[in-house]
């Protein structure tokens, strides 16, 4: 039975043109090497080397075999190196999800850019969705990790790791009285919004943020009047820009260039923040996912 070592032996003898020197290169004795070359010749059914007074040279069958052997050995070496890179987390596939609001968070963009630069061999696919959708895709093994906002409850079978806390801003149509230029440097008490119509993400899309906003308004002494609910935070800002209401959004959303919106900070009595989390399954991460997790933690 022919093994890879027989091909390596034939290539070494062809390179050296001498069995003894090839044996030294391979780190074996000359008689066993000669024996293995004869095994290979019997399998081919023809001599591979012409024996000379001082060395050997390839026969025509030997030349054909050595040419193909080099290709086979290169493929094997490439496969081994690819496996080693995968084991080091330098190669593989990753599917990462993110909520719309997380897409504008500097941590997320820094991680994606850093992974591209540090491990270009990892094929990274990105999936946008609501927190609920992304949790479902993780459970269905269609995502490896996801940047999410606070889920309503800790999902079974998943690890949810807190990464960063950011403040929430009030998004106002630019023609709103509270958006006047003279007021923009002042912090806004949440109670000042008691008579406003709110535009919010639908609760299933971001249950944690939705519940936090409702709870903060009630703590400020009013129940918010929700006039519109949207599937994505970008849609929320579009409706605010159109003058259909006001909203409260994570500060990173202000990076989205949306005409017709003014952002104002809430005052210190309003303890309303947006938490960014990384969710993944609780099983042992692959090497590429481990590399991704390390980068997320360093950036966070």
UniProtKB/TrEMBL annotation:
Q: Which PROSITE patterns match?
A: HTH_LYSR
Q: Does the keyword Transcription regulation apply?
A: yes
Q: Name one GO molecular function term.
A: DNA-binding transcription factor activity
Q: Where is the HTH lysR-type domain?
A: 2-59
What are the protein's UniProt keywords? DNA-binding, Transcription, Transcription regulation
Write out the GO cellular component annotations.
protein-DNA complex
Q: Name one Pfam family in it.
A: HTH_1
InterPro entries with a match to the protein in the record: BudR_PBP2, LysR_HTH_N, LysR_subst-bd, WH-like_DNA-bd_sf, WH_DNA-bd_sf
By its UniProt entry, which PANTHER family does this protein fall under?
A: SMALL NEUTRAL PROTEASE REGULATORY PROTEIN (PTHR30346:SF30), TRANSCRIPTIONAL DUAL REGULATOR HCAR-RELATED (PTHR30346)
Q: Which family does it belong to?
A: Belongs to the LysR transcriptional regulatory family.
Q: Know the name of this protein?
A: LysR family transcriptional regulator
Q: Which organism is it from?
A: Labrys okinawensis
């Amino acid at each position: 039975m022919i093994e890879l070592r027989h091909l390596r032996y034939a290539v070494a003898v062809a390179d050296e043109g001498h069995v003894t020197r090839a044996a030294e290169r391979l780190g074996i004795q000359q008689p066993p090497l000669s024996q293995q070359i004869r095994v290979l010749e019997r399998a081919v059914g023809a001599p591979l080397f012409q024996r000379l007074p001082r060395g050997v040279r390839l026969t025509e069958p030997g030349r054909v075999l050595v040419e193909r052997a080099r290709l086979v050995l290169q493929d094997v070496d490439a496969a081994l190196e690819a496996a080693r890179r995968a084991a080091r987390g330098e190669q593989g596939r990753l599917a990462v999800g993110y909520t719309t609001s997380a897409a504008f968070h500097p941590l997320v963009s820094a991680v994606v850019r850093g992974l591209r630069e540090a491990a270009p061999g990892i094929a990274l696919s990105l999936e946008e969705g609501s927190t609920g959708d992304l949790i479902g895709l993780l459970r269905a093994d269609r995502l490896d990790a996801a940047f999410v906002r606070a889920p309503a409850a800790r999902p079974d079978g998943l690890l949810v790791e807190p990464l960063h806390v950011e403040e929430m801003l009030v998004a106002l149509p630019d023609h709103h009285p509270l958006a006047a230029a003279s007021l923009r440097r002042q912090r806004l008490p949440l109670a000042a919004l008691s008579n406003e119509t709110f535009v919010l993400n639908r609760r299933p899309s971001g249950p944690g943020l939705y519940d936090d906003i409702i709870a903060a308004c009630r703590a400020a002494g009013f129940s918010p009047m929700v006039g519109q609910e949207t599937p994505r935070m970008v849609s929320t800002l579009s409706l605010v820009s159109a003058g259909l209401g006001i909203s409260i959004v994570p500060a990173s959303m202000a990076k989205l260039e949306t005409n017709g919106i003014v952002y104002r900070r809430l005052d210190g009595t309003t303890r309303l923040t947006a938490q960014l989390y990384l969710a993944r399954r609780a099983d042992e991460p692959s090497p590429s996912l481990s590399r991704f997790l390390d980068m997320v933690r360093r950036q966070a």
